Amino acid sequence: MALGKKWIQPGLMMVTGSLSVKFLRPVPVNSEVCATAWLEKIEGRKAMIRAEITGSEGERMATAESVWVVIAPKV
């Protein structure tokens, strides 16, 4: 949910169309990490969003790709 939440406009509903996560290395307990997500592109009702988690020294721990789909509000 956090991947798509940043780009949701007020009153707009989005659902996860797909989500793929690659775990690249273990994250030690109690370590500090940085999670970053960005909008890759928009095609019609679909938003492609990518994200990554990096360790304190900048090493990539995990990456994610997701597709979010805008759904029409019920009338």
From TrEMBL:
Keywords linked to the UniProt accession: Apoptosis, Cell membrane, Cell projection, Cytoplasm, Fatty acid metabolism, Hydrolase, Lipid metabolism, Membrane, Mitochondrion, Mitochondrion inner membrane, Transit peptide
Pfam family, one: 4HBT
Catalyzed chemical reaction(s): (5Z,8Z,11Z,14Z)-eicosatetraenoyl-CoA + H2O = (5Z,8Z,11Z,14Z)-eicosatetraenoate + CoA + H(+); hexadecanoyl-CoA + H2O = hexadecanoate + CoA + H(+); decanoyl-CoA + H2O = decanoate + CoA + H(+); octanoyl-CoA + H2O = octanoate + CoA + H(+)
Residues in Thioesterase domain copies: 6-60
GO biological process: apoptotic process; fatty acid metabolic process
UniProt record similarity statement: Belongs to the THEM4/THEM5 thioesterase family.
Record's protein name: Acyl-coenzyme A thioesterase THEM4
Gene Ontology MF terms in the entry: hydrolase activity
Membrane-topology annotation of the record: Peripheral membrane protein
Entry's Gene Ontology cellular component terms: mitochondrial inner membrane; mitochondrial intermembrane space
Signal peptide positions on this chain: none
Domain of life: Eukaryota
InterPro entries: HotDog_dom_sf, THEM4/THEM5_acyl-CoA_thioest, Thioestr_dom
